[in-house]
Amino acid sequence: MSPSGVTAGRIPRGASAAIAAPLRPRSGQPLAAPGHACCVGHRGARAYAPENTLAAFAKAAAMGCTMVELDVHLSRDGAVVVHHDDRLGRCTDVKARFPARSTDFVSDYTVAELQALDAGSWYVRQLALPAAQRQGFLQTLSEAELSRWVSPEDQALYASGSVRIPTLAATLAQARELDLVVNIEIKALPRMYPGIARAVVADVAAAGMQRSVLVSSFDHEQLLEVKQLDPTLLTGVLTSDRLARPADYLQLLAADAYHPGCYDDFDSLGFNSVSARLDARGIAAVRAAGRMVFAWTCNHSAQMQALAAAGVTGVMTDYPNRFGLALP
């Protein structure tokens, strides 16, 4: 079955022929050396800092990432804010800060209310737990990695209550300073925020980051709308399904990148199959069509190596240090 979100009448004119210019940091440096994959910090370097915060993006840059991935929602008053979950409970102190509120959806809070929340202390509390009791992505964090990449000063900052949910505008300003490419994932499902694509496009334009941003979504209608608003912006098809003819599907949407899932129940590339081997045919077809491939989320060095050998443009990971260990 084809992915949802395709409305033939809304496909941008000239879509079948469009292949965008290369995605680069503002400095003009390439994402990676020729023939190599780049390391994409997933929600920043979220194994080593509270996810989707300025601290996490700065950590990713310090660990050698040339690109970061982040997620956006709309606040109640229409600001684009950086947060993964639809709800605030997992990564903030919303229950303590607003005990009388009956909901913790991001969209039920103003940007001022969201930025009053502590978005860092939860991470330090996770580190204090036995590994098996932590959130899944932190269960393989070793003591050696923690000691190497999270200093006592880092932990003090994260626990201080001063780490906030950032706006997209503030995050793009930081990315300019750090010379990072940014993958903005529009979290449109299930909330279907009216106007979120337009708000994202406006923030990107205001930051002057059009050539250093890739907009992705599981809601592929958002990608069509982004292209209608600004045909020069690059878009990526996020999926955890195994797409038949992914290169053709990207061409249909005038999309520039394919973002297949590759772990646990989101694996569409074969690592968790009976054979436990990567099926690289879709990757090869998309790359042969001149488009990009970013696989998510890979935290295992051997799998990173296999993805790089298959020709992906980038590997999204919570552990950027492991990417370096996986490659020659």
Overview of the molecule:
With 328 residues, the chain is of the alpha/beta class. The chain has one domain (21-326): Phosphatidylinositol (PI) phosphodiesterase (TIM Barrel), CATH 3.20.20. The chain has 13 helices and 9 strands. It has helices at residues 54-62, 94-97, 111-114, 121-127, 143-149, 152-159, 168-178, 196-207, 220-229, 246-253, 281-288, 301-310, 320-326, and strands spanning 38-42, 67-74, 80-82, 181-186, 213-217, 234-239, 257-260, 292-295, 314-317. The chain has an 8-stranded parallel barrel with strand order 1-2-4-5-6-7-8-9, surrounded by 8 helices. β2 (67-74) and β3 (80-82) form a beta hairpin. α8 (196-207) crosses α9 and α10 (246-253) packs across α11. The termini are far apart. 45% of the residues are buried.
Brief overview, please?
The protein has 328 residues and is α/β, with parallel strands linked by helices. It has 13 helices and nine strands.
Oligomer: single chain
Helix/strand class: alpha/beta
Strands ordered across the widest β-sheet: 1-2-4-5-6-7-8-9
End-to-end CA span: 39 Å
Please give the count of helices: 13
Shape: globular
Under the CATH scheme, the architecture is: Alpha-Beta Barrel
Radius of gyration: 19 Å
What CATH calls the topology is: TIM Barrel
Instruction: Give me the count of strands.
Output: 9
- The overall pLDDT, averaged over residues, is 93
**Unreliable parts:** 1-18
Helix share bin: 25-40%
